[in-house]
Amino acid sequence: MSISNESRGRIKQVFEPIALAMGRLGLTPNALTLIGFAITALGALLVGVQAWVVGGLVVFVGGVLDMFDGTLARATGQASKLGAFMDSTFDKAGEILVFLGCIGALANANVGTAPVLVAAAAMGASIMVSYTRAKSDALGYSSGLGLAAVGIMPREVRLVIISLGIVLTGTGIGTSAIQFALGVILVGAVITVIQRILHVRRQAKSAAQTPIH
């Protein structure tokens, strides 16, 4: 498990008052989704032109802000299938843009082919983490939090790692920081995909062995 239900409960206690304050300012869950995506896209652009420190901070702010949309929707009774679809779609689009920003920056930094391939592989593995959750939900294998709590590299962890790697790259360490961060994400995301596949496999076996009354 990546984040226990108890930990998520503590996170909710912190996030909910902030989300409600945003709601009182007139922001809707969908508005937060779009604002978070726009900020993330700006951060990705800054990373792409190697404005590492500012880009990393903007990416982190955009990612954190986007985490409030679901909290606000649930706290105000505005949760909907459309909102969940918008949230997931723009979450993934923003993450892909950040990876593309890293790929572009590394390519322009002339660090060789291997780091660029690692960045591309990390992006693909991260997409697979989200895909396994979406597919399992669609097939009815997950319940409650579904696969969100399964695996060592959920979106929240990936956001922290890549943002930190980007910022550290601009503080004198050089591109080795972002290369290391992308390598960690690649390995962690692959492990998470395997964990989620095994989790769904266990659920499928359990369902097949459950007698029908």
Summary of the model, kept short:
Helices cover 80% and strands 0% of the residues. It is mostly helical and 213 residues long.
What does this structure look like?
The radius of gyration is 18 Å and the shape is flat. The chain has a single domain (5-209), classed as CDP-alcohol phosphotransferase transmembrane (TM) domain (Four Helix Bundle (Hemerythrin (Met), subunit A)), CATH 1.20.120.1760. By secondary structure, the protein is mostly helical. The protein has helices at residues 5-24, 29-48, 52-66, 68-75, 81-108, 113-139, 155-173, 176-209. Helix 3 (52-66) packs antiparallel against helix 7 and helix 6 packs parallel to helix 8 (176-209).
How many domain regions?
1
CATH architecture descriptor: Up-down Bundle
Identify the CATH homologous superfamily.
CDP-alcohol phosphotransferase transmembrane (TM) domain
Average of per-residue pLDDT values: 88
SSE series:
HHHHHHHH
What does the oligomeric state look like here?
single chain
Write the layout of secondary structure elements.
Layout: H1 5-24, H2 29-48, H3 52-66, H4 68-75, H5 81-108, H6 113-139, H7 155-173, H8 176-209
Features:
single chain; 213 residues; mainly alpha; Four Helix Bundle (Hemerythrin (Met), subunit A); 80% helix; flat; disordered N terminus
